[in-house]
Amino acid sequence: MTRILRPMAALAVLGAALLVSGCRFFKDVDAVQVGYRGTAMEQTYRHDNLMAKVDSIKLPTPLPPAGASPPGPLPWKNVQVLNDISVAEFNRTMIAFSTWVAGTGNCAYCHNVANFASDTANDGKPLYTKLVARRMIQMNRNINGNWYAHVKNTGVTCYTCHRGKPLPQGLWFYTNGFQLQRHYLDRDGARVVSATMEPSNQNRSSVKQTEWTYALMINMSQSLGVNCTYCHNSRQFASWDQAPPARVTAYYGILMARELNTQYLAPLQTVFPASRLGKMGDAPKLQCVTCHGGAYKPLYAAKMAKHYPAVWGRPSWEGVPFASLTPTDSTAAPADSTAKATTSAAPAAPAAPAPTKPGGTH
Questions:
Q1: How far apart are CA 236 and CA 240, in angstroms?
Q2: In sequence order, what are the residues at sequence separation of 6 or more whose Cβ sits closer than 8 angstroms to the Cβ of residue 7?
Q3: 3-state helix vs strand vs coil in the chain, percent to 5
Q4: CATH number at residue 277
Q5: How many domains does the chain have?
Q6: Of these four, 57, 86, 145, 286, which has the most CB atoms within 10 Å of its CB?
Q7: What DSSP assignment string belongs to 310-344?
Q8: Which of 16-30, 139-153, 154-168, 211-225 has the lowest mean pLDDT?
Q9: Does 357 fall in a domain?
Q10: CA 249, CA 332: separation in Å to the nearest integer?
């Protein structure tokens, strides 16, 4: 009898220990319901893990405000973008830019310090860093001014992607015509919904397409540090009506990524030196992780942009965005998830490797 009771007592102690540790575990966990009850549509967060991630984000301290001095005229030559802010705001913005991107506060990263107005170095070669930075400032303003449906009043700055480094994380280059990142450039339609069992010209869904779409969704999920139900209803993944609001926000994020890649990043192919291009000669391009970095909101929703009017792209930060926005300011759920962003006179992206078989890129 004693031989039987001792193992049972040990099991009881072990069970009690597991129960106590389990209670402690669940005490530190938040389950946030994001959809309908009974559909497992929730996000689970460990307090300690989440706080550690938040604490790992080292945000630069905002520079002192420049004051209410009127904009321009600026005393410098060849200022093509930041010519609608005051001299004081221009100076603090330049200091911030150099810290956000170069991480050193070194003006020489983008400028010929012997002639700040010049777009070339002393040896006559183009200052590609300055030319790229100028285009990126325009892109930053476009995001904050015209993509309110995705960035809301959090906005973005150079630091959102660069985080003190010359190259942002998550940049991608062409590898082949089937890579999933092409969805962020020139491949629309990630749905795989079959109305019939047999394949046909009308029903192009296949196991291959399903695997491609699943890989793309995992890419997005990991980029934001969330699971599938953050954007989808688990009982009907294809339904927009039953999906959480985050799916609409994500949809506009995809459209935004396509516009940024086609209008701003891919056309820089001729500006970047060969050392900055991919193996197939294409310019670096962004994807979700470039801004998000594994967080459901970039920098965990730190509002850096509101401190720097130079990156607003709109007359005021807390006010309503420009009235003449593109359709990207709509908050209604799109009827077709394969629709592409509305762009006007977008520069042609450099030649990309084409798939060798139809139906492989969705």
A1: 9
A2: none
A3: 45, 5, 55
A4: 1.10.468.10
A5: 1
A6: 286
A7: GGT-SS-SSS---TT--GGG--SPPS-TT-----S
A8: 16-30
A9: no
A10: 10
**Domain membership flag for residue 13:** no
- Asked whether the beta carbons of 159 and 93 are under 8 A apart, the reply is no
Torsion on CA atoms 217, 219, 225, 230, rounded to nearest 10: -10
**Token reading at 61:** 């301290």
DSSP state of 194: -
Q: Judge whether 283 lies within some domain.
A: yes
Q: How many residues does the chain have?
A: 362
d(CA 224, CA 234): 18
Domain boundaries, position 325: 65-195+203-329
Q: Summarize pLDDT for 282-326 with one digit per residue, the tens.
A: 999 999 999 999 999 999 999 999 999 999 988 888 765 544 444
Q: Which residues of 229-267 are buried (b: 16+ CB within 10 A; e: fewer)?
A: bbbbbeeebeebebbbebbbbbbbbbbbbbbbbbbbbbb
Instruction: Give the Cα separation of 150 and 252 in Å (integer).
Output: 6
Is the pTM higher than 0.85?
no
β-strand pairing of 42-46 with 29-33: antiparallel
Question: Which residue is it, tokens 């991480």?
Answer: 103
Say how many C-beta atoms besides its own lie within 10 A of residue 92's C-beta: 19
Residues with Cβ < 8 Å from 272, sequence gap 6 or more?
Answer: 128, 132, 283, 284
On whether the CB atoms of residues 44 and 30 are closer than 8 A, the answer is yes
User: Which residues are CB-contacts of 297 (< 8 A; sequence separation ≥ 6)?
Assistant: 154
Cβ-based burial of 318 (10 A; exposed 0-12, middle 13-18, buried ≥19): exposed
DSSP 120: B
